[in-house]
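[Automated response] Your request has been received and processed.

Submitted sequence:
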Amino acid sequence: MMEEVQKGLPEPDGTVLEWISWGERMLCGLPEDGRREARSFLAEILSDPVAPWTRWDMPLTPEQSALYKSWIYRRSVREPFYRVTGSIPFMGRTFRIGPGVLVPRPETEVLLASIQDLFGSGRPSRILDLGCGSGVLIVSLLAMFPKALGIAVDRWPSPLSWTVKNAQLNNVRDRLQGICGDWTEMLGARGMFDLLVSNPPYIPTNTIPSLSPEVRLFDPREALDGGKDGLDFYRRLLPVLPDLLNPGGVAAVEIGGDQGYFFRGSFGRVSGCDGPWIVKDVGGQDRVVIWKKG
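Generated structure:
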């Protein structure tokens, strides 16, 4: 297979069309649209979204073709598109991602949209993000609420470093404090937050081997594994949730699409808080749970 691929490999100064044609052949076995991704990789390298259609006869530089070849090889072994490029658009902003963090999913935008609807003209002053990962939640919220201060907590240094990088990239670094450690360390901070958010690990342990290679092989396991039924994080959070919120404070967490039953039962009722309210994603699955402290 590799010899056949090498035989069809364009020259380093081959044209856009020649390199895209090779990339399409390399990615034709993907379950996603490999042809689209082959074009998108080249558009990313050329910083021109229409280059595959308008600059098809332009020769690449050796540096550009070497990068394109590297990206196509990486994607051909199921490394996710945005992990290969190292950046992803999210809520109209650009975020850098790399080892140690999840690739942000479109479903997480439901959480942010729900918060925006809930607060309306109100403005939270202090925001807490538990398990911040790449920082898409806390950075987006600080951009959404320009007078708010945020605290991002993660137990691993790598995610926290990506959050800080993305805060700098999106011009909110001066309003963000990062804390590396177990989030339960925050429990001493009683009644400090107007808004608490989290996209925790919620995939059942036994389900992980059946996930797509893009997730199973490249996302950090600690960001996926939610324990036997995927609900370990919520069992730790809900009993202490009222202690973390100011009066009128809101908590919003992402959940798995089939986990709404857990929160509709008695465990979802939190002392001193109204709710839970469960918000569905565009696919009709339960995706976000919200509480508000009285």
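Summary generated for your ticket: The chain has a mean pLDDT of 93. The chain has 13 helices and nine strands.
If you did not submit this request, please reply to this message.
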